[in-house]
């Protein structure tokens, strides 16, 4: 559906008479509102179940998030009509670039919320998804919008030139698919890469059980016993999920001693999520990842850099007076600053915590720091049995393609799994089950084009749109007294 989803909006935008910026913006906002309300409906449930908000208040907060994201679709619509006015049928390129401008805005403005970018719709269409290894998820989004825009143009006026443009756009998509299939068949990144057996422990601990003192021993025992079985099955790296230990592991002597004993006896390395408390001067709390080798805890921990809004901090806290219970119930974590990687048997390992995996540039920073394997740990119990865990897993899978790395995902309640450097899901669990996944992956050092260039393509799209808009403004004839003709302001 993604290949045609924008066609109705684009047809109406092209048929809208001038002046049309205001109407285009309104149409874009409505389109974005429908899209994000359907995609992020689960936010309301999270806030009522775990944030303690009344249903109507939770709906209001969800509405504000949806409305904010819809503004970027409104911006896209305005930039689209500007491009149509400036370059005519060739605007399929500027339209696609305008979409990328909106996705960049969702990434960077106000801390960013780049959830469910359009390119993720193709993560299961592996030949198309390979484009992410060159241009990132933004390149996949660009291609999808290109086909939408070409099809919309041909529907508005079935003249020869527009049909030719449609043929070119479909040809580009087909060429990408053929190249992607060829890339999949070669799997060149894996050649000569050293193998390692890994295990993911899915403890399936309910959110309300995590803070129950009476369950601490049984929760720890679940992870220890499953880890020991995984080590006996040959796992040399064992990954526990985010917040695996009920208490900060550095301050819980029992948990700390048990984990040290596990790694010393089995010879396996463990990566786990836990809170970290820095009590220098004023106490600061971090959501962190720890590496425990057979010789002990590594001196450096990774502190989560991208915190979850309304989960780990409250943006605009002073203005959200109507969501008082939510504001009071959210602990203020301090963000980390450095993409720390762990050293395991001469290799480097990067670990993204939960929501961080939706930031392509952050995951790329781990690879730039030498990471040969990507892990991500999460606690998706908050989401319940909604589409959110599936969305989260799909976005993590795209990081594997972008960076040309195996990705190992350990989730408390699922979905845990392994994705290879081409986006193929090698193993995955179901939601809300006790599970242990053991799989063979490889340490990979080769870099993809995207791993080397980052978001250069996306910023190039922004520069193109800026240039077209500026050129269009300069070409507009102006009457005396400042009345404008041609396209609107």
Overview of this protein structure:
This protein is α/β, with parallel strands linked by helices and 489 residues long. The chain folds into 2 domains: 7-186 and 455-482, no CATH class; 192-450, Nitrilase/N-carbamoyl-D-aminoacid amidohydrolase (4-Layer Sandwich), CATH 3.60.110. 47% of the residues lie in helices and 15% in strands. It is built from 15 helices and 13 strands. It has helices at 7-15, 21-39, 42-49, 55-87, 91-108, 126-129, 132-156, 160-186, 216-232, 253-266, 324-329, 360-368, 388-403, 449-453, 456-475; strands spanning 194-202, 237-239, 269-278, 284-293, 296-297, 302-303, 341-344, 347-353, 373-378, 407-411, 417-419, 425-428, 435-443. The strands form 2 sheets. Strands 1, 2, 3, 4, 5, 6 and 13 form a 7-stranded mixed sheet that branches. β9 (373-378), α13 and β10 (407-411) form a beta-alpha-beta unit. α3 runs antiparallel to α4. The chain starts with 6 loop residues before the first helix and ends in a 14-residue tail after the last helix. Mean pLDDT is 91; it is low at 477-489.
CATH superfamily label of the largest domain = Carbon-nitrogen hydrolase
The assigned structural class equals alpha/beta
Topology, number of strands:
13
- CATH topology label of the largest domain: Nitrilase/N-carbamoyl-D-aminoacid amidohydrolase
Question: Approximately how much beta-strand content do the residues carry?
Answer: 15-25%
Q: What is the CATH top level name of the largest domain?
A: Alpha Beta
Distance between the termini: 34 Å
Radius of gyration: 24 Å
Number of helices: 15
How helix-rich are the residues, as a percent range? Answer: 40-55%
Order of helices and strands: HHHHHHHHEHEHEEEEHEEHEHEEEEHH
Give the rounded overall mean pLDDT.
Answer: 91
- Give the name of the CATH architecture of the largest domain: 4-Layer Sandwich
Biggest sheet, in brief? 7 strands, mixed
Number of individual domains = 2
Shape call:
globular
Which ranges are low-confidence, i.e. pLDDT below 50, for 5 or more consecutive residues? Answer: 477-489
């Amino acid at each position: 559906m993604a290949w045609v989803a924008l066609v109705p909006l684009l047809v109406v935008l092209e048929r809208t008479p001038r002046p049309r910026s205001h109407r285009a913006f309104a149409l874009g906002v409505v389109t974005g509102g429908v899209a994000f309300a359907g995609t992020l409906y689960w936010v309301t449930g999270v806030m009522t179940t775990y944030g303690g908000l009344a249903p109507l208040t939770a709906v209001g907060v969800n509405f504000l998030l949806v409305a904010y994201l819809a503004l970027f679709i409104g911006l896209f619509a305005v930039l689209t009509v500007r491009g149509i006015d400036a370059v005519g049928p060739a605007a399929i390129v500027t339209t696609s670039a305008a979409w990328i401008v909106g996705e960049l805005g969702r990434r960077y403005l106000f801390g960013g919320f780049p959830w469910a970018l359009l390119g993720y719709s193709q993560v299961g269409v592996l030949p198309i998804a390979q484009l992410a290894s060159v241009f990132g998820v933004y390149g996949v989004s660009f291609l999808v919008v290109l086909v939408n825009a070409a099809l919309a143009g041909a529907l508005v006026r079935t003249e020869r030139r527009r049909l030719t443009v449609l043929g070119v756009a479909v040809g580009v998509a087909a060429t990408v698919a053929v190249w992607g299939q060829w890339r999949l068949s070669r799997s060149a990144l894996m050649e000569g890469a050293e193998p390692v057996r890994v295990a993911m422990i899915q403890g399936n601990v309910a959110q309300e059980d995590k803070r129950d003192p009476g369950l601490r021993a049984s929760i720890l025992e679940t992870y220890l016993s499953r880890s020991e079985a995984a080590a006996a099955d040959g796992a040399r790296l064992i990954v526990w999920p985010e917040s695996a230990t009920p208490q900060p592991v550095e301050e819980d002597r029992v948990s700390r001693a048990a984990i040290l004993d596990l790694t010393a006896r089995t010879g396996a390395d463990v990566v786990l999520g836990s809170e970290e408390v820095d009590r220098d001067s004023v106490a600061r709390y971090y959501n962190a990842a720890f590496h425990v080798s057979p010789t002990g805890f590594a001196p450096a921990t990774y502190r989560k850099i991208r915190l979850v809004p309304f989960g780990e901090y409250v943006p605009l806290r002073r203005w959200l007076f109507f969501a008082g219970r939510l504001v009071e119930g959210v602990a203020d974590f301090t963000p980390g600053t450095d993409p720390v990687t762990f050293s395991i048997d001469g290799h480097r390992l990067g670990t993204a915590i939960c929501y961080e995996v939706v930031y392509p540039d952050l995951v790329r920073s781990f690879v730039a720091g030498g990471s040969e394997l990507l892990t991500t740990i999460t606690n998706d119990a908050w989401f319940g049995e909604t589409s959110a865990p599936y969305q989260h897993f799909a976005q993590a899978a795209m990081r594997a393609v972008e960076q040309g790395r195996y990705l190992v995902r350990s989730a408390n309640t699922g979905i845990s799994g392994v994705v290879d450097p081409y986006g193929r899901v090698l193993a995955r669990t179901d939601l809300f089950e006790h599970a242990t996944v053991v799989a063979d992956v490889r340490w990979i050092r080769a870099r993809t084009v995207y791993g080397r260039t980052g978001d250069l393509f996306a910023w190039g799209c922004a520069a193109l749109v800026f240039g077209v808009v500026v050129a269009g403004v300069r070409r507009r004839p102006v009457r005396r007294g400042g009345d404008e003709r041609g396209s609107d302001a």
